[in-house]
Amino acid sequence: MHKDQIISQLIQEKxxxxxxxxxxxxxxxxxxxxxxxLRLTVSYPxxxxxxxxxxxxxxxEEFPEATIIGGVAxxxxxxxxxVADKLHLPMIYVRPKPKDHGKGRQIEGRFSxxxxxxxxxxxxxxxxxxxxxxxxxxKDGGNVIGVSSIFTxxxxxxxxxxxxxxxxxxxxxxxxxxxxxxxxxxxxxxKQYNVLKTWxxxxxxxxxKFEK
Length: 212
Hints:
The chain is an alpha/beta fold. The chain has one domain (about 1-210): Rossmann fold (3-Layer(aba) Sandwich), CATH 3.40.50. The chain contains eight helices and ten strands. It has helices at about 5-10, 45-60, 75-85, 130-140, 155-165, 175-185, 190-200, 205; strands at about 15-20, 25, 30, 35, 70, 90-95, 105-110, 115-125, 145-150, 170-175. The strands form three sheets. The protein has a six-stranded mixed beta sheet with strand order 7-6-5-8-9-10, sandwiched between helices. Strand 2 (about 25) and strand 3 form a beta hairpin. Helix 2 (about 45-60) packs across helix 3 (about 75-85). Keywords: Glycosyltransferase, Magnesium, Pyrimidine biosynthesis, Transferase. Pfam families: Pribosyltran.
């Protein structure tokens, strides 16, 4: 596994940006001292290959019965393609909603009710989008046995959502791992570490102090 190398490059290339004093706003409205733009990983051949290799190994270990790799649009699609290639498995991908033309498909690619599908997304914040993709796939007759991602924040909302869904989740990298590594490396101050740790424990409460 290349976890340390991957995390180092994510920080070095500012794919993961830490800004405790000027928080970022997520699509959910949540404020955060960290922003992760894993879409940028496609521009770095060595990095994306390490990610694909590690995800392939992880999926082979956690979901050995998998027969199809699925990508969650849009950011999960390229990584699913590279992982499917390494595992020599078929691939599908899931749109956020059905097309409004043609056959109106939401799932692209072929699968049967006997297939065992693992969906890949780039990042899990609350888990909402990838769990919607699970529902859409199952509505079309697919059997999703698990979800994987490059990175997860492991926020309370995500833990609750995955627990409710009953879907097994196996991420490659997690926020606690990132935080531990950055603290040990001296890349962040003790003050920044405390801010990042406090946010992770209760992100919605942490963001309230920035409200006007």
